[in-house]
Amino acid sequence: MLRACVRNTHFNKTGRFATSLRLSPPPSFRRRRSVAAHSFSAAADGSRLNSKMAQGAAATATFLPVDEKVDFPKEEEAILRHWKEMDVFHTANKLASGRPKFTFYDGPPFATGLPHYGHILAGTIKDVVTRYAYQTGHDVERRFGWDCHGLPIEYEIDKLNNIKHLSDVQKMGIGVYNEKCREIVMRYSGEWREIIARTGRWIDFDNDYKTLNTSYMETLWWIFKQLYEKGVVYRGFQVMPYSLACTTPVSNFEANLNYKDVTDPAVYVAFRCVDEPIELVAWTTTPWTLPSNLALIVNAEFVYVVLHHEQRGVDYVVAECRMESFCNDTRMVLDKDVRIVRKMQGSELVGKRYEPLFDFYAAEPGFGEEQLSRSYVIVGDKMVTADAGSGIVHAAPYFGEEDMRVCKRNGIIRGALPELIDESGNFKSHLKRVGGMYIKDADSEIKRMLKELSRLVHAGTLVHSYPFCWRSDTPLVYRAVSCWFIKVEDYREDILRCVEQTEWVPRFVKEKRFRNWIADARDWCVSRNRFWGTPIPLWVSEDYTQVVCIGSIEELERLSGRKVTDLHRHFVDDIEIPDPRGPEFKPLRRIPEIFDCWYESGSMPYAKVHYPFENKESFPQCFPADFIAEGLDQTRGWFYTLMVISTHLFGAPAFRNIIVNGLVLASDGKKMSKRLKNFADPVEIINQYGADSVRLYLISSPAVRAEPLRFMTEGVRGILKDVILPWFHAYRFLVQEVSRYEVVTGRRFVPSADAAVNSSCVMDIWVHSITQQLIEGVHREMGAYRLYNVLPQLLAFLEQLTNWYIRINRDRMRGAFGEDESYVALASLYSSLDAFTCLMSMFAPFTSEMIYANLKRAATNRMDSIHFEMLPRVSGVVDEEITFKVRVMQQVILLGRTVRERRRVSLKTPIAGLKVVHEDERVLAAVRELEALVKDELNVMNVELSKDVSCISCQITPNFKALGARLGQAMKQVAAAIKGMSQADIAKLETEGSADVLGHNITLDDVVITRRIDVGALAHPDIDGDSNREVAVLLDFTSDEELRWKACAREVANRVQKLRKQLRLSVNDSITIFVQPSGDTAFEKLSLQTEYLEKTLRRSVVVTREVPTAGKVHTDTFELGDQSFTVAVEVHDQ
Predict the structure, then answer these.
(1) 586-632 per-position pLDDT tens digit
(2) Is the residue at 490 inside a domain?
(3) Using CA atoms, how far apart are residues 770 and 516, in angstroms rounded to an integer?
(4) Which one of 830, 848, 873 terminates a domain?
(5) Where's the Aminoacyl-tRNA synthetase class Ia domain (predicted)?
(6) Model pLDDT for residues 198-222, shown as the tens digit of each residue
(7) Which of 175, 297, 313, 1050 has its C-alpha lying 20 to 30 A from 490's C-alpha?
(8) Pairing of β 476-486 and β 524-525
(9) Distance (Å, whole) CA 83 – CA 748
(10) pTM reported for the whole predicted model
(11) CB-based burial, 422-456: b 16+ in 10 Å, e otherwise
């Protein structure tokens, strides 16, 4: 027969086990430190231990004693040293040899800065998943990588050496410049290694890959040749996002990485028509592009109005749909300052010519009469929209992608144009008034020039979102440049087919963000006009009619006759190869461009193993990757380039599963900034609270769902307080009580996995069942990479273990029901705590290692480290009936506590009764079976069960999330019908599990049913109650004399326990307890409570008229109401 295991203590009802443990540790170890306390840091100081316990522990104890307090950061550092001494990471890899492979790709960061919280978050996710793979029987290569090329490195060198232009690099020498870049590439690699290790992440730095390695670069050449031979590489002259600070084009996806709100000029400019006396008004936020204007663009389908300005005597033309906005911006009042003269169709404007604003182009040698005849004309295109501007767009084709397209289509551009602006964004020095000026600085001068020419209609400002260079953090411009492209637009469907073969967590990133990006992706500009990077392996003739793509070092050596040891520019730029047409032609030389560093990182699956020059046979085993993870910002970065390259190479995705995390922001919601100092240094937070607390905080945050996280130091502190400490105290409690058990019985504690299964105690079977449910749930969710569903299960289990199982069974574990019962409870706790610790090892590697090192002493065949262990698998049957019964009991107790709190009646105060109300006999039977626990937890004298639900009403609401997708347009009618269900209909739905509503089968998952109790209808001031979805309770607060004296006895017991604590007595110390009430009535009434007091205090209690004074007697006197009491503890020599 199953029984509820009731503890017989009624004091210290805190409701939270962890808090009670911290504030009131068990008497046997209270306020003491053990010299031999289990600690990697050996931080315990020497304080006396009860002699009998100390001798027993030294001789036979299974577990090392655990200190009451632990400095978790210092303990973690000691564990790190322990791991280093054991070489645990490499040992783990050796142990995994021969297992099935699990492939993980680690995206390469730059080592020019220190890791931040975003790196720690992504690194923790990677660490959790790869630890899980290892601990489920896989061989996992965890290899770190470094991004060593590109703008981030060059930008640092440019700042250090005051390099402003490409010519400055040429003067210095590309070789000197590149070697300076090489010197700083790994500047912070040591700090990275140290910080990443301190976070508990296991990753191989010794066998890392670097994008600057010659073997890596050679694979990049091979990949490019494959793509070149497939016809997906081409050279084009296009308008591209361009970084003036870095003097190079960037790809379209890079331009989307860093948007900021900026204030720009917003000017209306009048262009004078030469065909009739009208002035066409265009609006622009880039006045610096006006000197490069070649055309005006209208929408042929729009209606345009001619507005006569009375004071200025001119006729302005704007689109009718933009007239109101134009008048508002320029503060012109219609029919006062301006009036409509006439209207015309946009098509009537097409073909008309206008005067150029400036003569900059006309003075350039490359701008001839033929080009002039094609320029300064009005053309039509639907790019002109009704949502901004004046309805007339000024076109500067070298500085706008759409401008270029329209001008080419209309024959305005047929060849190269003179360039008025250099590669650094400065107007050419010979240009009058603006020569040598930076384009944004020239805006003001150009506005002055327009005003002088009476062409400035209005000058204002506009705040808008604008793209910035992701590396230099300076505004990008759009500029026409010659670039090399990899085709994407023609292969979107192929890429999307590969995307469909991948699983993304969370899924919306794939379905919306990534798919939408691919659907609109442009051809990828992979060339950069820079120096430190992998040279593009194209050798060309001067006119580009002859192009040879090199795919290996061997091929270059064979064609050139030169030995090649390094592939950087200063080693290969001077290498020439013969022109295939014959010796009479000049030899081919390499083009000056290098690869985009995103091309390098996107090629890492192949380049890190030097494929296909090495590892050709083993490569299929590690491609595609089983798993990758990075931040949401990589959707248009690394994730994209991985997918483009793998699709072109193999028609397959580069990875199968991916976790995308959100961005980590400062507590104020802004981007973390060293300049603003709006975040705490990660190392400082780790040193204060421990890496496990930081890991758990990050991994339990919205960021794991690809949502932004505002990093709060208080959140890390909360994890330490609410997770790490309760876990530690549960472990410490187990160690203490096992030590007590071994001293008292003289038997060694040997845990049994079957103890809980074979127990007759409901709570033992329950804790075994929820442990198995936890194990199953963790494997299910981890297998689907849903980390956001894993940690909540683990933390919910910890709550169940500490605040329900341990608290309810605490006295049982202390031997109150005999040592056999103590063993069963301790063995049950050991099994569940051991399983929980193993499952937590992925998330909190330090704390789990510390606890495991002691727990493993009770078992055989355990590994040297918890991280070598395989994770537990489900064993034994889950008793669904018992888990149901305990869940009902918990609901009753929680509701009862809520009512007590509302009435401000402490749990220490006994109350008359509790009535549990529910129409379902199964619910009432669950309470009946666990009635003793309910009585004990709520401190009630009587429990009554009732099916009378007259005071309770059930409320039902539709679960719109569950029903919406299924019902579609019928949702509104079905929802109304559900809300209108009668009490009988709701009861029937609950009983049968489903119901027909307007022809639709509605189940319990489709609705939310809550119970509401009408306390007012009870018409009794001492009756109060509460309810939830599952059950309703009524509490009787009627007071009588018996209850008052029981409360008095509870306070007496509490005072004795405080006196014990002050005296630092253990549960094993021999004592006699005396209680002296004042007055005959108090003596008589308290004498009746002797049995309760002895049961609670587990010692002989004497209610006396006078406490003894001889011997080692310690007393405490207090008042309770109008009564005075003295409690005394007599300590006996042992």
Answers:
(1) 999 999 999 998 999 999 999 999 999 999 999 998 899 999 999 99
(2) no
(3) 42
(4) 873
(5) 79-707
(6) 999 999 999 999 999 999 999 999 9
(7) 297
(8) antiparallel
(9) 30
(10) 0.80
(11) bbbbbbeeebeebeebebbebbeebbebbeeeebb
